[in-house]
Each structure stands twice: as structure tokens, then as C-alpha cells.
Design a protein that fits this description.
Number of domains: 4
CATH architecture of the largest domain: Alpha-Beta Complex
Largest sheet: 8 strands, mixed
CATH class of the largest domain: Alpha Beta
CATH topology of the largest domain: 2-enoyl-CoA Hydratase, Chain A, domain 1
Shape: elongated
Helix content: 10-25%
CATH superfamily of the largest domain: 2-enoyl-CoA Hydratase, Chain A, domain 1
Distance between the termini: 108 Å
Strand content: 25-35%
Radius of gyration: 36 Å
Number of helices: 11
Length: 584
């Protein structure tokens, strides 16, 4: 009996040992099920709190491979339903980063792992005062920019100023194979500006129709005549202070505040003439011959200039000119396409029509664009009812918007437009004031852009003859939609490039501009007369072409190199472009 009991005791001990050894054997898998994460979690580069759920088969512990920026706030737990909370800090580095998360369940050999990654971040360098504006700019760019896809991939610093922020987006997109090459003007291979722009009520950019303060000069040119150095008055703003004093194109300013203009002071003097309260000595200039030292200066007088607020108009000059052979020519010096001046523009064409003009000369040498509405009004008055309903300009948006069915066009005499679905009446009214021309003469320079180029390209698409005189145009075949926002005490107007522009024949390939039929560069010539006269170098060529029916040959300059070219010579940078403005 004792032997049997002892045998049973030994057998029980063996069974117990085997049972314990079986429980201690490792289990298969990770012990994690019902996990709410993927193998690679992309965390916001601005930082975020992640809350992940799972079920564990036993006690567990979690670790992060880089707790300095990816910190686990719930590092351990028990079996059953569990939550893993992870605090991911903002990435201020210029490179992407990742951290591996490992969860080890007790008695399971392999841990559960996954990765949390962040794209590159940007260290905030600004004070953040324009963060709301920058977020608004990003939203519009990501949705509407003509090359919007790369915008969504950029790491941006929302704390900096709004101009710098916009530039960071534009340059960031440009790094993607220069995809937004057409958004900007170039000096040879170097971009000199972006067309996409933002404007605030703190004045930085002036536009036609916008109130400005100064002495009323649009363009001044420092010149060296050999016998005298001075500042040539090229263009005077109508009804501005200088115009009311009688200062006119071709006058030469040789003294400012009693001090003669010299090679040493002409840079500072030029800017003062635009904006400061000063006295100026003006002279008329005549020529006894073709050489610089044959200029004869005759003093006109001393004028006191006091800066004032005034409005820079769109129409600088509009006249009917009768040539020596009896032909009547309408001449229009038009400085910017602005809808506020459409009624005045219609009145000008009404006068041309009443005068019975035979030809039209559009002087767009200083016109860098404006609203497509106004260019449609003008084109309708040129083309007339014979072209009613035909396409002047068709707009093509980015791939996303196009796929969603967005499109737009501006048509001769048709009032319905993208910004005025119910109709912009001046376009329709323009048919009643049209000249029904089959040709037009356009004076152009490298400033001529956008809405001005729509006139050239759009009329050619209707088989209306457009004769160009001057230099190659700017080459802006893209346009902008305008968005406005009120922020604090400021108004912000944002114009991103959002569409390509093509004519009725589908042509839009003019990023390098339109070549002139007659190449004439008047920048090295002293003006012999006012705009719209035979004394003006470019108008002389246009009127001569109309009178003789023959295209003049390329002229040679007898008075070149009069301008000191390294001096900025415009009073302000005009807001140009082919623009759509959504008005309230």
C-alpha cells in the first residue's frame, strides 16, 4: 500500500511539472488584435495627438524609438481592450523623420510594430500676425492655382509675412520641374516677377482707377544730352498737379530746389520729382541737327509742385486726327483695362463713330492689362455685330477644376460672364457703339501685357487684322481670379494665376510675347511731340502706314543713348494682368 501511494505521488509531481512547463512555453503571434492603425501612420507636420485602440491578450508595454518628438503617454496596460495615446510634436526640421512604435505583450515572442512619420517642417521665423491671411492664401492656391497639385506637398511657415509666404509657395511649386514657368515675367532666363500677387490696403501697388498721392508724373526719364543733364518728362497724368501747371511731355527739368541736376545726384532727384514738395526749372528742347550736342534748351519757368491725392485714369488721350490726305484716324492712349471706365470707353468710341473714322490706333505701350470684362467691351466695339457671339477669349483652369466641369469664355457682345452670370450689360451695349472694323493698329512695348494681349490675340482669332508697331509684347498668356478678405483694419485682394487664355482658334502659345510688324524702340529717342501726333516716334509710324498703305521700314535713330538706363523711371508699379474680380 505504501508503494502504491508513493508511485501516485511521483506521477502527480511529474504531471504538475509538465503542466507548468506547457504554460511557460511561448505563444505564437504578437498578442495584438483589432488594431486601429496601419503599418505607417503619416502624422501632421504641425504636430498632433494620436489615440489608437487595440486588444491585448495579456499585459503589455509600448516604447518609441524617438521619444523626444514621438512620446508614448500610455506606456503599459493589461489584457483586454486598450488605448495607446501618442503625442507627436511639430516638426521644425528641414527634413522628414520617423519613429518606430513597439508593443510587447507578455508571453508573446514578437512585438507589434508600426511607424509614425512626419514630412519636413519649417522653423517659424515670423511673429504670426498674418497667419489667418496665409491660411486663406494657401486654401485658394491649393484649390485654384493653375498648377495646384505641388502646393499640397509643401512644408510652409505660416508665421511669416503674407508677401513672403506667397513667395515661398510660388518658389516651392517652381522646384517641381519649373511647372509654373508661365507665372511670371523674365529678363532672358531670369524671372523678374511673379504674376500671382496679393495686395493689401496698406498701399504697395497702384492700379488704374486707384487714388494715389504725388506730383502727377507717370513716367520720367533721366537723360544726358551731352550739353545738359536733366530729367525728361515723358508722360504726365491727366488732371494731376503737373498737368494743371502746364508741364507737358518733352519738357526737360534741369534744376530741383535751385540745384542743378548732375551725374552725381540724378538718382535721388528723380524720385523726389515724383513725390516731394519741390520747385523745378523746366525747359523746352529743340534740335538744330541730329547730334546730342545740337540740342537747344529754352527756359520755360520755375514751377512749385505740391503732392496731392488724385486718381490715375484709364484714358489718357482720345482724339480724332485728320491726316493730310483726308483720312480720319481715331487715336486712343489707353493705360489699363478697368471696368469703372467702361462707360467712358464707350463714349470715346461713340465719338469716333460720329466722326466717321477710317482707322483706329490703339496706343497700349504702357498698358499692362486689367479686367477681361473691359477688354471684351473694347473688342466688341471694334468687331461689331458681324462677330456677335464669337469667342474672344476662352479660359482653361487646372486639371481638378476642368475635370469638375469648370470652363469659361468671353464672347463678342454677349453679356454673360463667369463673374457676372446674370450679365455685364456694357458688353451687350457695346454692340450699339461699334466701329465694325476689319483692321486695327496697335502700338505696343514689352509693358503691353495680359488684357492688352487679349485684344491682339482675340481679334486675330476673329480674322480681324491687327498691325503691331513698337517692340515685342510681354507674353502673358495666363490670367488671374481675384479674391478679397477683410482682416483687422485691412483689406486684402489676392490674385493667383488660375487659367490659360486662348482665342477662338485655340491659340495660346505666346509666353514670349507677340513680335511687332514694325520694330521701333522709342526708349532712346527724345520725344518730338505729344502722344497722338506726328512728332511722336511710334504714332508717326502708325499714321504713315495708314496714309500710304505701306508698312514703313525699320527706322534708324539719330539721337540715341539719351537715357541713363540704370534709373527706375515709373512712378509706380501698376496692377496689371488679365483679371477676373468677383465683386460683392
Amino acid at each position: 500500500m505504501k508503494i502504491i501511494i508513493k508511485t501516485l505521488t511521483i506521477l502527480g509531481t511529474l504531471l504538475l511539472a509538465l503542466s507548468c512547463r506547457k504554460e511557460e512555453m511561448p505563444l505564437e503571434g504578437t498578442g495584438i488584435s483589432e488594431a486601429s492603425w496601419s503599418q505607417n501612420i503619416a502624422a501632421d507636420e504641425e504636430g498632433e495627438m494620436l489615440s489608437l485602440t487595440f486588444t491585448a491578450e495579456g499585459k503589455w508595454k509600448a516604447v518609441s524609438s524617438d521619444a523626444q518628438w514621438c512620446e508614448i503617454l500610455t506606456p503599459e496596460g493589461v489584457s483586454g481592450k486598450a488605448a495607446l495615446r501618442i503625442n507627436v510634436l511639430k516638426n521644425t526640421a528641414t527634413s522628414a523623420r520617423s519613429a518606430q512604435i513597439s508593443i510587447q505583450v507578455e508571453s508573446y515572442p514578437a512585438p507589434e510594430t508600426f511607424t509614425i512619420s512626419q514630412s519636413e517642417g519649417v522653423t517659424e521665423e515670423g511673429d504670426g500676425r498674418y497667419r489667418e491671411i496665409n491660411e486663406w492664401v494657401y486654401e485658394k492656391m491649393a484649390a485654384n492655382y493653375l498648377w495646384n497639385e505641388p502646393v499640397k506637398t509643401l512644408a510652409l511657415d505660416y508665421s511669416i509675412g503674407y508677401q513672403a509666404f506667397l513667395k515661398s509657395i510660388l518658389e516651392g511649386v517652381g522646384k517641381h520641374d519649373d511647372i509654373n514657368h508661365d507665372d511670371g515675367a523674365y529678363n532672358q532666363e531670369y524671372r523678374t516677377e511673379y504674376y500671382t500677387q496679393i495686395i493689401s490696403s496698406a498701399p504697395e501697388t497702384k492700379a488704374v482707377g486707384q487714388e494715389t498721392r504725388g506730383n502727377g508724373f507717370y513716367l520720367l526719364r533721366p537723360v544726358n544730352l551731352g550739353t545738359a543733364i536733366g530729367v525728361l518728362v515723358d508722360t504726365v497724368i491727366p488732371d494731376g498737379p503737373a498737368d494743371r501747371l502746364g508741364i507737358k511731355r518733352g519738357d526737360l527739368i534741369t534744376e530741383v530746389n535751385g540745384i542743378s541736376i548732375t551725374m552725381d545726384n540724378y538718382r535721388s532727384v528723380t524720385s523726389k520729382i515724383y513725390t516731394d514738395a519741390i520747385t523745378v526749372q523746366t525747359n523746352s528742347v529743340a534740335w538744330e541737327g541730329a547730334h546730342l550736342d545740337q540740342a537747344v534748351l529754352t527756359p520755360i519757368g520755375t514751377f512749385e509742385l505740391i503732392p496731392e491725392y488724385y486718381t490715375d485714369p484709364a484714358i489718357y488721350k482720345a482724339e480724332t486726327i485728320e491726316l493730310s490726305d483726308g483720312k480720319k484716324v481715331g487715336y486712343l492712349l489707353y493705360m489699363g483695362f478697368h471696368a469703372d471706365y467702361d462707360d467712358e470707353l464707350i463714349a470715346v468710341f461713340d465719338k469716333f463713330k460720329a466722326d466717321g473714322i477710317d482707322d483706329l490706333v490703339l496706343d497700349l505701350r504702357y498698358n499692362n492689362g486689367g479686367e477681361i470684362l473691359s477688354s471684351t467691351v473694347m473688342a466688341t466695339m471694334i468687331a461689331g455685330p458681324a462677330h456677335q457671339g464669337k469667342t474672344l477669349a476662352k479660359l482653361t483652369f487646372n486639371e481638378e477644376r476642368t475635370a469638375a466641369g469648370e470652363s469659361a469664355s468671353y464672347r463678342i457682345g454677349v453679356k454673360e460672364t463667369i463673374e457676372y452670370p446674370d450679365g455685364y450689360l456694357p458688353i451687350e451695349d457695346a454692340l450699339q457703339h461699334s466701329l465694325d472694323l476689319d483692321r486695327v493698329f496697335v502700338i505696343a512695348t514689352n509693358i503691353t501685357a495680359s488684357a492688352s494681349e487679349i485684344i491682339i490675340n482675340g481679334l486675330r482669332g476673329l480674322d480681324i487684322e491687327v498691325n503691331l508697331i513698337g517692340t515685342r509684347t510681354s507674353g502673358k498668356n495666363v490670367g488671374m481670379e481675384g479674391y478679397s478678405k477683410k482682416y483687422r483694419n485691412y483689406d486684402f485682394l489676392f490674385y493667383p494665376v488660375t487659367f490659360y487664355i486662348e482665342n477662338a482658334k485655340g491659340f495660346r502659345d505666346y509666353p514670349d510675347g507677340f513680335d511687332p510688324d514694325i520694330y521701333l524702340d522709342d526708349s532712346g529717342y527724345y520725344p518730338g511731340g505729344d502722344f497722338g501726333t506726328m512728332g511722336d516716334y511710334l504714332c508717326n509710324a502708325a499714321f504713315g502706314w495708314i496714309k500710304t498703305g505701306q508698312k514703313p521700314g525699320r527706322a534708324t535713330a539719330s539721337m540715341q543713348n539719351i537715357r541713363l538706363d540704370d534709373v527706375p523711371n515709373t512712378s509706380s508699379t501698376r496692377l496689371g494682368g488679365s483679371r477676373i474680380l468677383y465683386r460683392d
